[in-house]
Amino acid sequence: MNLLSSQKFEKAGTTLEQAAGKIRLVALDIDGVLTDGRIGYTGTPDEIKFFHVRDGSGITMLRRTGLLVGAISGRRSKANQTRAAELKLDFLVEECWNKAQSLFHVAQEHGLTMEQCLFLGDDLIDAWAMTSAGLGIAVGDAAEALLPAADLQTQAFGGQGALRETAEWLMKLQGTWESQLRHYHLIP
Known about the structure:
8 helices, alpha/beta
């Protein structure tokens, strides 16, 4: 995870670590974050997307630690809906062009503030949500023009473990990573 800017934290009189400790909701884009951004068509209305299984594990672990996790996508897709159901996402907002506003409404529905939200994105449509959230993270292959809106950037690319990297980083800062290692019997 690379720190891109600490301005948001300095203005708020806090640190990155303190900001991470406040996160209770993780929201993410789908195309370009949970997938590599490519969309394949089969000749039917169905489309093909590939999701990384470790990103799914990261979502499961975040939810197991008590965090809310969901997606806000600009596109409506049966593949998105199927994957969201498999992962038991806490929310899925589709056909959304104002992701900051949707994030605000989702947070409000759960009694949270924007400061308690993390948004993970990859493209320009994600900028306002990233700057509005307590933490805004760009995937490793995010659009260059998006980076000024991000606080951090993953090493991993979208669809290749960027969410998992974010999840592990956040759980380590929140002190919940060891509970996940215990869950998998990796430590006593």
